[in-house]
Amino acid sequence: MKYNKTIRISIGVILLLLSTNIYAHGVDDSTKNFLSSIVGVEFFPLLYIGAKHMITGYDHILFLIGVVFFLYKVKDIVIYVSYFTIGHSVTLLLGVLFDVQMNAYIIDAIIALSIVYKGFDNLGGFEKIFNYQPNTKKAVLIFGLFHGLGLATKLQEFEIPQEGLLMNLIGFNIGVEVGQFLALLFVVIVMGVWRKYSSFNKFATIANVAIMAAGFTLIGLQLGGYFVNK
């Protein structure tokens, strides 16, 4: 009884957080105005925006929480995060430079799917249901590519001028990495402390069910937005 109640509370908290900002790639008005009026190289402002976007982008954070959830060694965390970083850096840069046009709702729905995937994987769902375990590193790399496309798609909406574009993109991407590092550092510290208590094993399943629930909610919101605005 308490177990089911805890599941409902965990899922409810995450859904409440999601409801405060439906679209994870939302951009505040001041940032919109700045991006729309860029002239030449604005390396450091773009770096700041990239870091801010990653720290407040809960779709990225939820995926990374899922990725590191059962990683106990720093070496493993670095390897997996590197795969993710390579993936989203490639598509972020190339997506904007080569003007790869994608529907923002569909891309964000796929990003939400990555959250569901990681929670399901952490629960051992693939082995239990399909008797098959996907290559986790390849999966993180592939989903990283889609996360980068999500960032690229959002940047393309602001039609950043070609003058200084490459340096601005590099600045934004470095900012994303800084934001990712800070967010991940916080997550790893919290997870490291939590693992020392017996509640970690007790509530690990609940936490990953909640992660999946958040992912499914985001998928629904993004697909709803796609069909409404089609």
Strand and helix map with partners:
Elements: H1 2-19, H2 29-36, H3 43-56, H4 58-68, H5 74-97, H6 104-122, H7 125-130, H8 136-156, H9 165-194, H10 199-228
Helix pairs in contact: 1-10, 3-9, 4-6, 4-9, 4-10, 5-8, 5-9, 6-8, 6-10
Any descriptors?
mainly alpha, about 230 residues, about 80% helix
Walkthrough of the structure:
- It is a single chain.
- This protein is mainly α and 230 residues long.
- It has one domain.
- It is 79% helix and 0% strand.
- The longest helix is centred in the C-terminal third of the chain and has 30 residues, at 165-194.
- The model is unreliable at 17-24 (pLDDT under 50).
Distance between the termini: 43 Å
Helix content: over 70%
Overall tally of structural domains: 1
Q: Tell me, what's the shape?
A: globular
Strand-and-helix sequence, N→C? HHHHHHHHHH
Tally of DSSP helical segments: 10
Count of extended strands: 0
- Measured on Cα atoms, how large is the radius of gyration? 18 Å
Query: Could you name the ranges where pLDDT drops below 50 across 5 or more consecutive residues?
Result: 17-24
- Strand proportion, as a percent range, falls in under 5%
Mean pLDDT: 87
Class computed from helices, strands and strand pairing: mainly alpha
Q: Please summarize the sheet with the most strands.
A: none
TL;DR of this structure?
The chain is built from 10 helices and no strands. With 230 residues, it is mainly alpha-helical. It has one domain (2-15, 28-228).
